[in-house]
Amino acid sequence: MSKLEIIRGKSNWGQILEGQLQHLGIVTLMSIGAISLLANPTDAPRLLGLTAYGWAITSISLAIVHQVIVAIVFRLQLHRNLLSRLFGDADMRIWAIVFLPLLASRPLTLIMTGWADTTPLTDVRWAELALGLALLAPALWAMHSTLFHFTIPRALGGDHFRDEIAALPMVKKGAFAYTNNAMYGVVFLGLWAIALLFGSWNALVTAAFHHAYIWVHMYTTEGPDMRRIYQNC
Known about the structure:
By secondary structure, this protein is mainly alpha-helical. It has helices at residues 3-10, 13-16, 20-37, 52-80, 82-87, 91-116, 125-150, 152-155, 163-166, 182-187, 189-198, 201-231.
């Protein structure tokens, strides 16, 4: 019997829902906090119909939709083999069609937020630009490491779908040679870089929300899943 079959054979609803009350409570508080920090001047210009405030709200909302969907799919796939039973060998292709556009919406909506924003960070633009470029460099390096060493199937949560992916050794190349979680720890620095390069307060608040919220996902959803997959807990 394979590792994933063993997990599914022992599965119960307590395991499926593990960490999700915390997820709901934390994201509720984080959303209230982030929205309260956003600037919303009455004379704000619009970009494609939305002000910077509107784009920031859109970015935060899409992040929540993304991570809630990921939590549902990861748990139901790991414990009930849901997508594989529904779509067979096309399960991961179907999942990629849902997952990747939502992932891409994060930097895209953040760019729109920064582009539309008229609320500055500081009066020292050269420092914002320098720090933004300094953060962008490792973020791009970690993105390259994710694509070419970690690979997209693993980034999609392939260890929830395939025993052969769950059996792969830890990646120790590129950015992953320095940190086990280059995606969350380093790639997400690119969102801070976008905010700094635009000199945008609303984008910075939104970037902070994105980066904090991905770690909420790690500790409430992915962390328990990884312990179950790799430590047979």
